[in-house]
Here is the input.
Amino acid sequence: MEDQQKVPQREISHKQKRSANYKKLALILLVVILLLGGGAWYFISNNMNSTSNTAQALNNLSPSDPIARVNGEEITRSDLDTIQAQILSQQGIDPATLDAAMQQELLTQALNAVVAQTLLRQEVENAKINVGEDEVSTQLEEIKAQYENDSEYAQVLKSQNMTEDDLKTQIGENLRTQKYLDGVIDTNSLSVSGEEVDAAYKQVATNTEDVPPLEDMREQIEDSIIQQKQQQLVAQHIQQLQQKADIELLI
Here is the structure.
């Protein structure tokens, strides 16, 4: 691979990337929640029953039975099942291939995700943030447009244990969450330097064959770095919520 000439440092404002990153909010939030270390993750990991006992307890529960409480609000088996299905679908994992250890890891990730999402939703509700039906409809149509036909779209919903009404509810929650985060986290000041782009490109080039020239990947790398910084800020905020929350596991 030919050496790339060092490019002048550029600062990329988060505002310039807002539109593209906004559409990825749901994925960003899920990734942040799954990657959290400490907080509810530590609590869940150290207060969960053994794998066999936890699996048996879940098998004995109906979809409406509670599996945890967050600030007095019950989280049901159905809520947990939905999150697990979404994790498996987004990572392209066949649940039939999971052994006991992987099932336990998935369960811990899903519990962590559903607890953190509940904490965020509670804060959004307390902030009384509203989203119009037109905003939800616009986002829904953008999602549908990503699929070749209605059948493929319906199949993806089914794989994530969701109906279209569930998706619309999630879209509304994500839009409200974005507005909430805009009010409590300074994401507009995020920027990417030329040095950061260079370092990220070198890392990709080291681990990947036939890497395109830097200039062909610059925008993609900038987006990725901005998303990582967003994730760090959101993760810090969620950890603050976890520290003051009353979290109780029931399995």
Remarks:
- The mean pLDDT is 79.
- The first strand starts at residue 66 and ends at 70.
